[in-house]
Amino acid sequence: MSHQVLARKWRPQSFAELAGQQHVLQALGNALEQQRIHHAYLLTGTRGVGKTTIARILARCLNCETGISQSPCGECTSCREISEGRCLDLIEVDAASRTKVEDTRELLENVQFAPSSARYKIYLIDEVHMLSNSSFNALLKTLEEPPPHAVFILATTHPQKIPPTVLSRCLQFHLKNLPAQVIVDHANYILEAEGISAETAALQVIAHAAAGSMRDALSLIEQAISFGSGAVLLEQVNDMLGVVDHQVLVDLTNAIIDGDGRAALAQLATYAQRVTDFTRLVDDLLALYHRVAVEQVVPGAGAEAQLLGDTIAAYAKRIAPEDIQLFYQILLNAKRDMALAPDPLTGMEMLLLRLLAFRPVNDDKVLADSSRVAIETRPLSPQSKQELSEAQQEPSQAQKPPVDKSGEEHVTKKSAAVSDRAQANTPLPVDVPQENRSPAEPAGLSEPTGDLPSNDESGAAPFDPAGLNPVSWCEIFSRLPLSGVVRAIAGHCVPLKAMSGASCHIEFALQDSDALLYKEEHSERLATSLSIFCGCSVKVSVRIVDDWVACGLPADIETPAMYKQRLLDERQEQAMVAVQQDENIQTLLEAFDGEVDMDSVVPVSTEPEGEQPNS
Q1: Residue 462 and residue 480: Cα distance in Å, rounded?
Q2: Domains of the chain: which residue ranges?
Q3: 139 — phi, psi (to 5°)?
Q4: Which pLDDT belongs to residue 390?
Q5: What is the CATH number of domain 246-357?
Q6: Angle at 55 between CA 194 and CA 153, to 5 degrees
Q7: Who's near 159: CB < 8 A, 6+ residues apart?
Q8: What span, in angstroms and rounded, lies between the C-alpha atoms of 156 and 47?
């Protein structure tokens, strides 16, 4: 044959030429340099990641006439014979065609004889998992204690099918799937040496289609070269693999973001003229939105080695994270229900209409809606009302809800007393006896009473944010008009400093372990919510800390989330005690010799005291 395929022609002849698998090469290289030769090696991994290649290179390293090292000379007789496949002391066995125990016994009959010319007699058994149980049993003793001149190298794609008795006798190395960028770089190197032009975008498509296998990638490149008449081009590779044109994904996504239904349906109609199966289009959209979501959480990771890297990075800044999550979930549900649609085009059109119709509830809108309730129940100064009106961007005075002035002066004396204590930054009273308090509870952090700070009957000023402390924060948090990610983050915050003046400023502490999704805009939304609650302008800043002690707080301080969870646990414990002490239940258990499944016991109300759902 005058032509040799790329996968065979460019098979690496040394560890230095091998792409990827550095964790295996480092271990084998160090062992060879230190002369720590094991008698049995097991190489595992998916197809085309280098199992047989590493085994042959290892055989050359062991039998090179210049000595055992991780860099064989490649020129001596032994190295050339192994490279050309005519070495008598390298016995390659295809276990898939020699599964019988008789074949294994025949193979082991000659293991006692010394190698003819090389240093070691090496047995390379490929697809070893195909051997029968009898063959494995026949191999066990020799595999555990072979002659000093024999080395076994086993390779398999299914290590779970190998008996544990064989695994325990081998030094096992698992070869990983190759990253797409590694495949692209290696393919570029080969094609440049071959003098074949190739588009990087086409190689990226092939690398993703290869799914981590270098041999699959080189085979696809061979096919692309033939398909493209000597060149690897993106458009032809897409046609060859049936991959969706990436411009279609970009145009559809832009139409969805802009809410342009006409453009989205036009793009779909154009695409439907070429392809009638939309499963691949849905999968590619899912993959795109997945990379965007990764990019939003870890900048740089989602767009790395991606064909649409720049587009993914732009979408990560342009699309809200909650929108991406909703798009992904809609696509998943649509993929499941696509078979139930009258026809594929109808199912795909309905999918686009859902992506255009549904949007997550915006936190700012929730705050604006919740503020109406806060205005009706809490007195605001004229200046505060004007600031709140501007923040909500209400179009006209006529659209504002009427304020019940009689309710502005009607508050309880008990709430006023709590407000006075909060303004003085003093601990709130405890409703439980002192002896029932948990020993781990720090002094001054008594349990919130559940009463909102408010005005007294004489019309005193609203709650002063300067009086906010860790105790009153647990109480106030449950009344704030917050939702979504902002509420989750605020539930793990603890107030550090609260300063009053022309513009109140509150500094919160947030542990680094809870700050994965935190952004600066969350502080602004929390400030808006506190301004609504307190009836004055409040600024909020959040300090990320390693732990509470680092910012001068007790190590066991309680956040609103911890406070809510503690109340839930206490209610659960009370419910379990009540069930155990119930006379009727005990009578039933004695009569029927039964027992109570305590995991099924839940309180009548799972909402803890002081925690109310948002309006």
Answers
A1: 15
A2: 6-174, 180-241, 246-357, 364-396+410-429+446-557
A3: -85, -20
A4: 55
A5: 1.20.272.10
A6: 165
A7: 42, 44, 129, 167, 172, 174
A8: 9
Biggest CA pair distance of the chain: 108
Instruction: In whole angstroms, give the CA distance from residue 467 to residue 488.
Output: 23
pLDDT score recorded for residue 460: 41
Q: How far is CA 420 from CA 411, 414, 426, 526, 536, in A?
A: 14, 10, 9, 23, 17
- pLDDT 10s digits, 141-182: 899 899 999 999 999 999 999 999 999 999 999 999 998 889
Residues with pLDDT less than 70, the chain: 1, 305, 361-463, 501-502, 605-615
Looking at the DSSP bridge assignments, the partners of residue 538 are: 504
Distance CA 129, CA 158 (A): 6
Name residue 121's beta-bridge partners: 150
- The topology under which CATH files domain 180-241 is Helicase, Ruva Protein; domain 3 (1.10.8)
3-state secondary structure of 43: strand
Q: What is the CATH number of domain 6-174?
A: 3.40.50.300
Structure tokens at 612: 């109310």
C-beta neighbour count of 7 within 10 angstroms: 17
Alpha carbon separation from 317 to 125, 312, 422, 425 (Å, rounded): 52, 9, 41, 41
CA–centroid distance for 342 within its chain? 35
Closest CA relative to residue 281, chosen from 326, 237, 238, 311: 238
pLDDT digits (tens, 9 = 90+) for 109-124: 889 899 888 899 999 9
Q: Which two tokens stand for residue 134?
A: 């009898």
Contact yes or no for 454/419 (Cβ under 8 A): yes
Would you give the end-to-end CA distance of the chain in angstroms? 78
Residue closest to 243 by CA, chosen among 262, 224, 229: 224
- Do the domains spanning 6-174 and 246-357 agree at the CATH topology level? no
Write the DSSP assignment of 68-102 as a string of letters: S-SS--S-SHHHHHHHHT--TTEEEEETTT--SHH
Q: Which residue has the tokens 């948090």?
A: 477
pLDDT confidence of residue 273: 83
Q: How far is CA 264 from CA 253, 311, 358, in A?
A: 8, 18, 15
As a whole number, the mean pLDDT across the chain is 80
The arrangement of strands across the sheet holding 504-511 comes to 493-499, 504-511, 538-545
Residue type, 234: L
Asked if residues 470 and 495 have their Cβ atoms less than 8 Å apart, the reply is yes
What is the rounded CA–CA span in Å between residue 126 and residue 60?
17
CA atoms of 286 and 329, how far apart (whole Å): 9
The whole-number pLDDT of residue 443 equals 36
Residue 494 and residue 560: Cα distance in Å, rounded?
Answer: 8
The torsion angle over the Cα atoms of residues 136, 141, 146 and 152, rounded to 10 degrees, is 20
